[in-house]
Amino acid sequence: MLHPSIPLPNFHHGFSTNHALCQAYQWRLTHVKLQNSKKDLGVHKISKTGFPPIVSPPSPLLQEQMSSLSPSVELIQSVEEQEKGEDETCRLQLPPPPTHAFEAFYPKGSINPSAPIPGGFGFYLTGPNDFVSGQEVLMSYRVMFQNDWEWVKGGKLPGIFGGVGDLAYKCSGGRQENRCKCFDVRLMWRQNGTGELYTYLPPTENNKKQLLAVPPVSRANNDYGFSVGRGSFTFVKGTWVCIALRLKMNTVGEEDGELELWINGHSVISIQRLSFRDSEMATIKGMHFQTFFGGHTEDWASPKDQRAWFADITGVSILNTPSIHLTR
């Protein structure tokens, strides 16, 4: 089976902060050290909480505990062997725990980064200078919540964003203007670790129809984004969870865009017939790497000081289509 960070058989090129993953895929992945990510991953528009510290994360739950909580994933021993049709595989659980990670700190009482008590962090990243997005990308990362994490009502996790020039930014927070010129697809945790996609897409009737049809529960939030596929997966405390999100742009004038989400290598949400743009000027920009509790009201706030860790940031271009270099 495929690596949970890249759960697809074919892609053209990409990058990752996971050195072992880059070695497995050899020339197709550029390795970027997490310690150099602020410069080498095109990080920009950092929120007032600042750029997160890079730390050695705590050890996850014991492997036997993980096996009862997380889906089993087989990792290919060598991508080259797989392409040659060889059957030798290395049967493992999820990849070894990362040795370095971004640390997100959510103080007691914190909600979103602009609140009186800010929590988490936020920035945008485009990938290395030589990364070309094309019209279809997959972006992934791993996240671990502390062992005694309290979920409260919910919070945000990173995803993919894009649109027309600078209008692509801040496509969230209840934004209503120029909504056809941007898109933002992040994740959320909800009560008890229930997971979902949280989307801001152009507000077309067909997008609404397709998003609300996703099981088990999907909802349109008044003045905010859509909660999509709530309950299709559940986050687990104290162990690394691999999140991979694929976005395929629609052909201008058509509704043939796609979204797909994998958790630990398992496809849990797949949506077709979407529209992300009405102009060729709209492109995939990269990752909206943001996390916080909320919501915007105090009943969403973290009940205590809490931490989560993010690692193995990866991005790949899938289709060999006319490409546009990502701009910062």
UniProtKB/TrEMBL annotation:
<dbReference type="Pfam" id="PF21294">
    <property type="entry name" value="Polysacc_lyase_14"/>
</dbReference>
<protein>
    <recommendedName>
        <fullName>Polysaccharide lyase 14 domain-containing protein</fullName>
    </recommendedName>
</protein>
<feature type="domain" description="Polysaccharide lyase 14">
    <location>
        <begin position="100"/>
        <end position="313"/>
    </location>
</feature>
<dbReference type="InterPro" id="IPR048958">
    <property type="entry name" value="Polysacc_lyase_14"/>
</dbReference>
